[in-house]
Amino acid sequence: MILNIKDRFNDFLNNSKDYPILAGFSVGFYAMVFYFSNNFDLVNSWEQILFFLLYYIGASVAVLFSISKIIQKSKYARFVSQAIFILMILILPIYLFGISNILGSYKKLGLLAILILGLLIFKMKNYKYFIVLVFLMSVIPVLKLGKIIYFNYSNAAEWQNQPDAILNTKFKKSPNIYYIQPDGYAGDINLKGSLYNYDNSAFDAFLKEKKFTLYPDYRSNYESTLFSNSSCFFMKHHFSNEFSKFRYARDLIIGENPVLKIFKNNNYKTFFISERPYLLMNRPKMYYDYSNFKYDELPYLSDGWSFIKEITKTIEIQIVTNTKSNNFFFIEKFKPGHIGTYKFAETNKEKERIKYLENVEIANHWLKQIVVLIEKNDPEAIIIIGADHGGFVGFDYALQSQEKVTDKLLIQSIFGAKLAIKWNDLKHSEYDSKLKTSVNLFRTVFSFLSEDKTLLNHFQSDASYNCYDPTDFTKVYKAIDENGN
């Protein structure tokens, strides 16, 4: 049996027959499983799976088969094998890096040319060896993808269950609610501190003039937009372990979650308005009644970061045209953001601080504009300006925060976040005196709206958690405890 397999394998390698379909399948399959294993939370919808099957495997098979047939019928028929091999060498890096990245880098172009020349001159006269090599390369991403799938099926979702009957909460007052999330807006303590060294008193004075309550000690419970928001909208801790039955953070934030269910149970319309479709890229099942992005306009090969819409006019239109309903708006503004994510040669913490503070100025200008707009059209509304996490100033780049950080100021820079709420009711102080972290934000809001203080008995721990292994989000540590230490 073993000899038979070995003989067939040797026959495949050494016979004169060409296998353009298998060659195309090998490079397409490797590129697809590599992409899926590194971006599964972005591409786990059936629609995307079908697209990538066609994009990677279908396209590469079609290209190699078509060109090989064309060459076979030409006077260059004896070069079919070489053509298949060169196409494999060209298609694979195009899939992995993109044409623009390759053409924009002399180093990548040079390496590609050297690789093709070297393989042609020396070893790879027979492209079938390269087919075998590509399939062997596929083993690692296939195993990684298998681990992701197993992890999804085996991971429990009990953390999503509520500890009380909050889902049955009935509001006694029903103002429109605007949850405005300026991404990465650092908390007041951070901005005043030595790392940021920024005077934000003019903006805070504006907020106080507009009757906002400021929460200078507020912070997020997790370090990223996805982890922070999934915890916030479920009002529960997931300990960075929310992946379950192929429901990822985007599915939890945009799809059915306790916060949206409670609003809908109280006859609220729900609106998701965002500058970027970052939370929509895996096409989660939409539970909001309105979104300013439609799935058919979203690109497939993107994380949604480069697709931007102006949202101020959209917000105004939705306010003006929905005056007869009770409304909840979740508005994402991607300013100030945080410092740069990755390390570059010219990166340093001072340059990142200056750039970040410039973005704070931009965010402040827009927030003033939107607060005035809401007040003009909806004076009785509750307006929540609540950031998802801090600005990471003090690091050279944001991914440094995934190392085990012990410096108190740096930890605060990760989690310390801006929160200001215009309640339009002095009785809010009976409900929000213990509000410290985002996991308890909506529980506080619902307690206030229902005038039910028993909901406050089930506050989640105010601890903040950080990952220390970017390849395994089950490994987390308590960066700040429930007492702020």
TrEMBL record:
Thylakoid in keyword set: no
Keyword Cell cycle among UniProt keywords: no
SUPFAM superfamilies, sorted: Alkaline phosphatase-like
Keywords: Membrane, Transmembrane, Transmembrane helix
Highest taxon of the lineage: Bacteria
Spans traversing the lipid bilayer: 21-37, 49-67, 79-99, 105-122, 129-153
InterPro entries per record: Alkaline_phosphatase_core_sf
Name of the molecule in the record: Sulfatase N-terminal domain-containing protein
Species in which this protein is naturally found: Flavobacterium franklandianum
